[in-house]
Structure formats: structure tokens, C-alpha cells
Amino acid sequence: MVVLQLQFLSVLFLASIMGEAQHVMQDAALMNYIDRRILSLENRLDKCNQDILDYVEEFRDFSQMVLSRLAGLNNYETEVKSEVENLLTRVERAQRDIDYFGSVTDSNTCVEVGEDLVKQQLLEAEEEKRKLKLVLNASCDHMLAGVKSLKVVKKTGDKHGSWTKDPGKKHTKIYLLNSSVNNVIFEFTNIMTFMESNHTLKARKITLPFPWEGTGHVIYQGFLFYHRHGSLNEIIKFNIQKRNIADQMVLPGAGRIPAYQLSPSTKIDLAIDEQGLWAIHSEPETGGNIVVTKINHVTMSVEHTWDTSCSSKDAEAAFMACNTLYVVYNFPSGGTSRIQCVYDVLGAVNAYEIPALHFPKRQGSHSTVHYDPKEKQLLAWGDGSQIIYKLHTTQKV
């Protein structure tokens, strides 16, 4: 009996052990399944995070592309607006030419031209010339007869640049504008300070809101006038003391080709003479010949434009003096600079009777030649040197 009881207990014990083992195996399988599911969820979360990062990067690239396209559209809008304004100007000129040729054709069909009509036309031409002189306040009566001497004031800066001063009576400050693209001006108290060896330590540094393009900038009555870099033909008027933009304008027709073949970085060359502010540039419609525009520096508007007979080919610079354009030519490899094209906007100078005027004692090239109406001299930038040329003048014929 006892044996039977022991056997029965053994069977129960074994059954209990086997049941416990089965439960353990089931729990292990369940834990293994849970671990695999958690690992799968972690992998999916990692993939989701990576996808989010990829989407964020793609969205950032897309945003940058959209912003770039919008900036391009703004530039394109500015260029289109400028081209439309230029086209309107050209249409107006063409209409004037058509009217003129129409009047010439009509007059040629006449059998006889009355003396009264001829007198009337002469009177009208004289009246137009008189009005133009009043607009220019033309009190100049001298013309350039030669370049007497040179003085190298300093050698500092890049190959291309400009140095200038305000031609007003009370202004003695010198301004250095280094390079053909920059936005920093150095202002010196006077030329003696500028000539010192470590000149930048004593210079007032002026930072422009927009960089300039080329070397054709001038300072007049406390304002810097310059061609804005990145624009086709926008001219900025910058107040030097207040350090802000006072005004701006678009110069129709300019900016598409260099003003001078040998100075390709300068598309618009601004100039000052006894009559104020001028712009010198070239246009494809004139066959590359130089165009002169008188600008009202107060209202920043065009007063008059002249298509000259001076070619921009082999030209390196030009300047205005007493209502007259003087174009400086050179050789592409450099050499002796010479003035061999002159254009007086009032017709008071016969350009064909003026011999070529050579710059003395110097071989090289100029990136800038500006006229100083106060001192009657030229401030030039030649291969990194700042040069003063003294002038010899004579009465206009």
C-alpha cells in the first residue's frame, strides 16, 4: 500500500515538473517574440527618423532653390524694366529721326526754298544752341592743349582702382577706392596724409551698403556717385557724411558693353567738370562709339545725351573738361597713352584740328583718368600707382 502511494506521488511530482517546464518554455517563447517585436519597432522608428531627416534636408534644399529662383526673378524683373525703359528711349530717338528725315524729304521736294524759311531755320538752330548753353551754364572757354608733366603721388592698391576728391572750394579730402569691385572707401584728411607710408591707419573707413562696379566713380558736393555692382545701369548717390543712400537712377542704354575696350570692368564712367556730373558709356546701337550724358546731380535725371564719333576700341579711359570729352587710347599690351579723340558737346571745338596729345614719360596703362576742375589737373590710376598730370590749356577757337 505504501508503495502504491509513493508511486502515485511520484507520478504527481513528475507531472508537476513537466507542467512547470512547459510553462517556462512558453514564457521563454513569449519573451523571445516580444523581444523580436520591440526590435522590429526600434528598426522602424530608426527608419522613420532617417526618413524625417531626409525629408527635412530635401525641404531645405527645395527652399534654397525657391529663394534662389525668386532672387533671379527679381534681377530679371529689374533687367526687363531697364530694357523696356531703354527701348522707350530708343523709340523716342527713332521717332525724332523719322520726323527729321521726313522734314528733310519734304523740303527736298520743294522746287524753291524761300530765304525766309532758311533764316527761320537758322534762328531756330541758334535758339536751340542758346538753350543748351543755358542748361549747361556754359561759361567755359578753355580747351586742353597738352599734358605737361606727371607726378606719382603713391603706389598702393590693386592694378585697377580710383582715387579722387571733391572739387568744391573748401574740400581737401582725398578718397581711395581700391579694386573694380569693392564696398569700402578710405577717406584722408588731405593729400599729405594720403602720401604717408602707413596711410590706412589715419584714414576714415566708409562701408557702402552696395559694392561698386568698375572704376568710374566720382565725389561731388559731398556725395559719392557710383555704378552699383550686379545691376545693369543703376547709379547710386551716396551721402558720405550721413553714410546713407540719398538717391538713385537708371541710365537708359548703358551697362550692356564696356565703356572702353581696354577697361572691360567699367561699364559706366562718371565724370565731373566745371558744369557738374556726366556719364560716359558705350552702346551697341552706336557701333561701340562712346555716348555722353549730362546728369542733373540734384534730381538724378538725364538732361541731355550726345552720340559721339569717338570709338571705344583701344580706349582705356576718358574724362570731361569744360563740356568737352577727351578719350584716352593705348595699345592692348600697354604703351604710351594718348588723347586722340575730342568731342565738344556745344560744337565749340573742331576735333579734327586737334593733334594727338601724348601722356609724358610713362609706359603702361590707366584704369581711371579723372579731371579735377578746381586744380585743372588729372587724377589717374595707372597699374596701381596714383598719378597727377598737370595740364596745358588754351582758349577755344
TrEMBL record:
Pfam family, one: OLF
Signal peptide (residue range): 1-21
Coiled-coil segments on the chain, per record: 38-135
GO cellular component: extracellular space
All copies of domain Olfactomedin-like, residue ranges: 139-395
Disulfide-linked positions: 140-322
Subcellular location: Secreted
Database matches in PROSITE patterns: OLF
GO BP term (any one): signal transduction
This protein's name: Olfactomedin like 1
Classification via InterPro entries: Olfac-like_dom (IPR003112), Olfactomedin-like_domain (IPR050605)
Domain of life of the native organism: Eukaryota
Keywords in alphabetical order: Coiled coil, Disulfide bond, Secreted, Signal
Chief place of localization: secreted
PANTHER family: OLFACTOMEDIN-LIKE PROTEIN 1, OLFACTOMEDIN-RELATED
